[in-house]
Amino acid sequence: MDSKQLDLVLLIDDDEVVNTLNKIILRQTGLVKDIQAVKSGSEGLQELANYQKEDRWPALIFVDINMPGIDGWEFIKLMGEQFKGFKGKSIINMLSSSLDPRDKEKANKSTLVDGIISKPLSHEVVIDLCEKYYDL
């Protein structure tokens, strides 16, 4: 990994517009080399399986809470079951358009989730995460 950039960020959100906005914001920070976006929890799990085969792992993962099919919480549960060693490799943040206090509480209790963020991302949030976890 370059000393001033994260190698890979994975966005998981069923809303194409939100994914596009988040990609733009991530690019504008200049802190990320590669940004991948998928539109479902099942696609997210498939991407992680591909990354694992390549021995590559996203530094940051942003997961929408409310998605059809596999929602954000189910994705986190399945990820924890299927990819045992990921926790030291990725910072996982849940994304929500409404910060429901129950979701905040669930995120705070989860050993797999590092935080919960209001959508869309902001430059400040991305920069704060990079500084907090990766000293960028």
Number of helices: 5
* Main sheet summary: 5 strands, parallel
Helix percentage = 40-55%
Morphology: globular
Specify the CATH homologous superfamily: Response regulator
CATH fold-type name: Rossmann fold
Structural class: alpha/beta
Mean pLDDT: 92
What is the CATH C-level name? Answer: Alpha Beta
Strand order of the largest sheet: 2-1-3-4-5
Summarize the structure.
This protein has helices at residues 16-29, 41-53, 72-82, 101-109, 123-134; strands at residues 6-12, 32-38, 60-64, 91-96, 115-118. With 136 residues, it is of the alpha/beta class.
Give a quick set of tags describing it.
136 residues; Rossmann fold; 5 strands; 21% strand
What does this structure look like?
The protein is an alpha/beta fold and 136 residues long. It is built from 5 helices and 5 strands; from the N terminus they run βαβαβαβαβα. Strand 4, helix 4 and strand 5 form a beta-alpha-beta unit. It has a single domain (6-134), classed as Rossmann fold, CATH 3.40.50.2300. The mean pLDDT is 92. Strands 2-1-3-4-5 form a 5-stranded parallel beta sheet, with helices on both faces.
Give the SSE layout.
Elements: E1 6-12, H1 16-29, E2 32-38, H2 41-53, E3 60-64, H3 72-82, E4 91-96, H4 101-109, E5 115-118, H5 123-134
Parallel strand pairs: 1-2, 1-3, 3-4, 4-5
Helix pairs in contact: 2-3
